[in-house]
Amino acid sequence: MRNLELDIPQLKSCAETYQHWYREIVNSLAVPYSNGPTEGFNNKIKVLKHVSFGMRNLTNFKARIMLLNRDSF
């Protein structure tokens, strides 16, 4: 890679990172799978947890999580 030959530390670091993770990057682009939906669920739950601060009943909290994600199941 040409970036490894330059004297710019940021480009050199970026090129080394790409070389290190090359196989993983290619694999992630080759397969149609993504953990995006899972990350979306986690984010919704974290936001709900923040908004519901002080909720005492765990059963109601679980019901709110299921209700929030009902379109995804």
3D architecture notes:
The model has no long low-confidence stretch (mean pLDDT 84). Helix 3 packs across helix 4. This protein is 66% helix and 0% strand. By secondary structure, the chain is an all-alpha fold. The protein is elongated and about 60 Å long. It has two domains: 33 residues, no CATH class; 37 residues, no CATH class.
> pLDDT under 50 segments (min length 5)?
none
Number of helices: 4
Radius of gyration: 21 Å
Number of domains: 2
- Secondary structure: number of strands: 0
Series of secondary-structure elements, N-terminal to C-terminal: HHHH
Overall pLDDT metric: 84
Measured as a percent range, the helix fraction is: 55-70%
The first-to-last residue Cα distance is 45 Å
> Which range does the strand content fall in?
under 5%
- Helix- and strand-based class? mainly alpha
In one word, what is the shape? Answer: elongated
Sheet of most strands: none
Keywords:
single chain, 73 residues, mainly alpha, 2 domains, 4 helices, 66% helix
